Amino acid sequence: MRMALVIVMFGVGVVRGIAELDGLLYVVCELSRVIHVFDTTTYKRHDITVFKMNDPNDIVACAATRQLYVADCGTDKPVNTGCLPKVKP
Length: 89
Prior knowledge:
Blueprint: H1 2-10, E1 15-21, E2 24-29, E3 34-39, E4 45-49, E5 56-62, E6 67-72, E7 84-87
Antiparallel strand pairs: 1-2, 2-3, 3-4, 5-6, 6-7
């Protein structure tokens, strides 16, 4: 419930994916190159701009590699459609 409240409070857009890693909540929205980052304790927000990302579908976090992985359906190269391999938080 806390996660939903943060997203509604900050009005980030149409949410496509949410991931959590090390106390930070990562949110991607449709047609956005920005990963919104919320501290789950203080609710402070900062953003990461990913210029290779156009229209993310989902985001996942891997605790073992400490990486974010974003599925992007809007890449401009057909061979890359559907993925953005990783983003270092």
